[in-house]
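2024-03-11 09:14:02 INFO worker-7 job=invfold-0412 stage=load source=structure_tokens
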């Protein structure tokens, strides 16, 4: 027996360490919040003392705690019942069912009380599949909730539909305009608003009049989020946009008060998920250089502030939009016309690029890691140009990274490597809306979208994530999606050349996020001295057939040496 004993030992398992050699062990020992040893049963039993807890894994597989490196975690907790209606697939499959769901909530409320919903997806709505020109409008919602303001956000968070009362309260009329790259959708015949609001600046006009969740409701949302994450084996997340720019969005679930609630929970030692926060400046995400110049100087800290449970990781920027709304900025136009554009203030594309470049420069100069939402190839080039200039003027190792990075070109992949730029990308999203993307950008670009194989082969640091609540934080489905590249709806394979292995996908969900967090020395793999964060699966993910990975169940989760979930 060792001179001092472990608090707990875990025997008879398959320990997937994700260490530099991808070693597979049989057992591990934990002391306090850290891993004491990893090895064979005999080696680990040597660490047992009179008070050591012995856990027989019974042949189950253990992975490092999953790090979902790009989520909107607080919003995810609040995006589910009871706070918000679930109007997404598979809960509802048609506009008729959405209307029934809204009608049921209206029957429970007094006139004038708000109804909030989230999750609808045009690719899974029966009426839209039957008639691609059909859209859900304010009139649909007026039929079932004329006396309650209603808004329903889609699964991407980039568009919503509101009813007439909500539009009236927000003062949205046929004369209402918004920032470039966003849209108040209007009927082409009458010119009247349809209820559709595309991108954050347009949505922000409505969100100004939506009541904020109370602090207690935000706390309940965050606690719900942690329970749901732990149940899936997730022990770390990046909450990828919290701050003054999100105070009015989604009832404040992107606002600064959520950081304060996290702080409370940390002080109470109630955290069961490690949270890396990205600051969001600027009203409703309409971020400008002036926001950066003012806010960064006032905040008085920079990336890395905090500890292993709660830290400030960096700043969130929005480069362009998404393909579904034709707001991702492409070099080659969409099949239906148009190129999209940046969602940055500026009268011309040149002005917008200049503004983006300056924002990156200010953040870099003041020591903030930049995480930039960017999808179209033209927007990606602009972001890399901005980071390259910032690095040239003030060399720093901040690990800036691109979020999504759907249509990055091979030339820009090489530039990412040379500049140390990472990528947080989402195989789950390719699985979820591949068929819609086929239509929006054409099959050749859809085959290339999310080129994880090419990024890894080039040596670019890659982390895998869910973007919850855009998708459920189902990393097992995410691994299956990365390995198979199949569409959820049709089963069509898009981009088989971009498939990766199960082991590579596991690394993306563990060490990839740890690198992004600047915490690869303390988490992301199961090695002595690292944090005792791990999950226990009911089957061996390395030998399960790729088509069956999504059926594997997480049966236990340990964070900081403590059991935080057990099936």
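2024-03-11 09:14:09 INFO worker-7 stage=emit residues=567
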């Amino acid at each position: 027996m060792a001179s001092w004993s472990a608090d707990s030992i875990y025997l008879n398992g398959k320990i997937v360490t994700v260490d530099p050699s991808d070693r597979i062990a049989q057992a591990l020992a934990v002391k306090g919040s850290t891993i004491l040893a990893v090895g064979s049963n005999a080696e680990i039993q040597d660490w047992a003392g009179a008070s050591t807890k012995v856990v027989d894994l019974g042949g189950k597989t253990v992975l490092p705690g999953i790090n979902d490196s790009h989520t909107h975690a607080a919003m995810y907790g609040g995006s589910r019942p009871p706070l918000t209606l679930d109007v997404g697939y598979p809960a509802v499959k048609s506009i008729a069912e959405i209307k029934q769901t809204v009608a049921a909530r209206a029957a429970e409320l007094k006139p004038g009380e708000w109804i909030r919903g989230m999750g609808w997806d045009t690719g899974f709505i029966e009426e839209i599949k039957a008639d691609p020109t059909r859209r859900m409008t304010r009139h649909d919602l007026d039929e079932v909730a004329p006396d309650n303001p209603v808004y329903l956000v889609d699964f991407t968070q980039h568009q919503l539909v509101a009813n007439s009362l909500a539009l009236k309260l927000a003062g949205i009329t046929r004369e209402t305009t918004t920032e470039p790259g966003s849209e108040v959708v209007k009927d082409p015949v009458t010119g009247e608003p349809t209820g559709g609001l595309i991108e954050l600046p347009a949505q922000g006009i409505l969100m100004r009049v939506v009541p904020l969740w109370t602090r207690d409701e935000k706390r309940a949302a965050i606690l719900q989020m942690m329970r749901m994450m732990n149940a899936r084996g997730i022990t770390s997340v990046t909450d990828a946009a919290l701050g003054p720019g999100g105070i009015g969005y989604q009832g404040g679930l992107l606002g600064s008060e959520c950081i304060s609630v996290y702080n409370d929970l940390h002080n109470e030692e109630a955290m069961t998920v490690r949270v890396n926060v990205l600051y969001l400046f600027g009203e409703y995400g309409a971020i400008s250089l002036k926001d950066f110049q003012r806010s960064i100087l006032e905040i008085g800290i920079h990336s890395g502030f905090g500890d292993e449970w709660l830290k400030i990781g960096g700043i969130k920027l929005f480069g362009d939009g998404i393909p579904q709304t034709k707001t991702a900025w492409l070099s080659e136009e969409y099949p239906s016309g148009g190129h999209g554009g940046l969602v940055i203030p500026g009268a011309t594309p040149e002005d917008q690029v200049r503004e983006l470049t300056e924002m990156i420069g200010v953040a870099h100069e003041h020591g903030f890691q930049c995480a930039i939402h960017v999808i179209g190839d033209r927007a990606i080039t602009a972001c890399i140009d901005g980071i390259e200039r910032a690095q040239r003027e003030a060399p720093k190792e901040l690990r800036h990274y691109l979020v999504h990075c759907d249509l990055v070109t091979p030339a820009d992949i090489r530039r990412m490597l040379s500049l140390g730029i990472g990528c947080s990308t989402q195989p789950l999203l390719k699985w979820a809306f591949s068929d819609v993307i086929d239509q929006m950008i054409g099959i050749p670009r859809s085959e290339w979208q999310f080129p994880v194989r090419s990024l890894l082969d080039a040596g670019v640091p890659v982390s895998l994530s869910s973007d919850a609540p855009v998708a459920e934080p189902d990393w097992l489905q995410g691994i299956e999606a990365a390995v198979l590249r199949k569409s959820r709806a049709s089963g069509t394979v898009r981009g088989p050349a971009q498939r990766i292995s199960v082991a590579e996908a596991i690394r993306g969900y563990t060490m990839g996020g740890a690198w992004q967090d600047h915490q690869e020395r303390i988490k992301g793999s199961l090695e002595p001295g690292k944090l005792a964060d791990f999950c226990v699966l009911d089957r061996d993910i390395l030998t399960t057939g790729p088509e069956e990975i999504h059926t594997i169940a997480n049966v236990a989760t340990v964070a900081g040496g403590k059991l935080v979930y057990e099936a």
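2024-03-11 09:14:09 INFO worker-7 stage=report msg="The two ends are 32 Å apart (CA to CA)."
2024-03-11 09:14:10 INFO worker-7 job finished
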